[in-house]
UniProtKB/TrEMBL annotation:
This is Sugar phosphate transporter domain-containing protein. Its main location: membrane. One of its GO terms (cellular component) is membrane. PANTHER family: SOLUTE CARRIER FAMILY 35. Residues 23-297 form the Sugar phosphate transporter domain. GO terms for biological process: transmembrane transport. It comes from Vitis vinifera.
Length: 335
């Protein structure tokens, strides 16, 4: 295959991966919003455990059918990843409870600079001036859209700090583990989803009771609410898989920056389906600024020197098979 054809194929697969992530992420947010707001199922941590249980079922069936080959991930690495991932989920839920919506949004926005710090320190990544400015423009636009009242307290700040750093570390580790151990997205999910499902289903009911003062076993289940739960779990399989695919192909920073397109789409769909309250000129202006920043980032980071490592790529674990795993290794020097 000629270099031009390879570049075209890569661009097509990259675009498909982003679209897969955007569609599933926005879809699950809208379904969960309806499930929680309309049907009163406010047990977010338990629901996330069910998501990973469904993902575990999917990876088990695919492995049984032979679509996922055997692979190795050290227990220490697995437990470290699950710790970061679960702290991210719990931290975000607690941060939302203890902080104002405005500070919660600021905390979410800070994941981009934190992810940048991790890449600079751990991967020796270097960003061009245009790349840095485009990231700043995205942050400004999303902040204009979403940040309203801003108040902070000590315990809320601690919860936000834990949530931001654990989320950034979890997303960094997705890319790191795929590169180091030559793991495809399905392989990595097959290792991590069962442990996350078990831990969250054990912890979730207690945490949700603490957050909402309601017990999941006392919830009045109906046919429609159960159908929404099943739909949420089904979409979550795609969301989990697409996140691993995107971070594996790109980096955590790129996933965060371009991923704010999901924030814009959720705002637009929220106005369409749940009422136009809050839609005003400064929200529209923020959306426009954010989209311009995303386009600028995509252009700036793809140029030579826009975003590249200053050291050789991470060595691959020789014990792992490398065929069929190009999705996580083909972009190491430039992202």
């Amino acid at each position: 295959m000629s270099p031009a054809n390879k570049a075209d194929k890569k661009a097509t697969v990259d675009a498909a991966a982003w679209m897969f992530n955007v569609v599933t992420s926005v879809g699950i947010i809208m379904v969960n919003k309806a499930l929680m707001a309309t049907y009163g199922f406010s047990f977010a941590t338990t629901l996330t455990g069910l998501h990973f249980a469904t993902t575990t079922l999917m990876t088990t069936v695919l492995r049984w059918l032979g679509y996922i080959q055997g692979s190795h991930l050290p227990v220490s690495e697995l437990l470290r990843f699950v710790l970061f991932a679960n702290l991210s989920i719990v931290g975000m839920n607690v941060s939302l409870m203890w902080n104002s919506v405005g500070f919660y949004q600021i905390a979410k926005l800070s994941m981009i600079p934190v992810s940048c710090v991790l890449e600079v320190v751990l991967d020796k990544m270097r960003y061009s001036r245009d790349t840095k400015l485009s990231i700043s423009l995205v942050l400004l636009g999303v902040a204009v859209c979403t940040v309203t009242d801003v108040s902070v307290n000590a315990k809320g700040f601690i919860a936000a700090f834990v949530a931001v750093w654990s989320t950034a570390l979890q997303q960094y580790y997705v890319h790191f583990l795929q590169r180091k151990y030559s793991l495809g997205s399905f392989n990595l999910l097959g290792h991590t989803a069962p442990v996350q499902a078990a831990s969250l289903l054990l912890l979730g009911p207690f945490l949700d009771y603490w957050l909402t003062n309601k017990r999941v076993d006392n919830y009045q289940y109906s046919l429609i609410s159960v159908m929404f739960i099943i739909l949420s779990c089904t979409i979550a399989v795609g969301t989990n898989l697409s996140q691993f695919i995107c971070i594996g192909r790109f980096t955590a920073v790129s996933f965060q920056v371009i991923g704010h397109m999901k924030t814009i789409l959720v705002l637009i769909l929220g106005f369409l389906f749940f009422g136009k309250e809050g839609l005003n000129l400064h929200v529209v202006l923020g959306m426009i600024i954010a989209v311009v920043g995303m386009i600028w980032y995509g252009n700036a980071s793809s140029k030579p020197g826009g975003k590249e490592r200053r050291s050789p790529a991470l060595p691959i674990n020789k014990s792992q098979k490398t065929d069929g795993l190009s999705e996580s290794t083909e972009i190491d020097g430039k992202v």
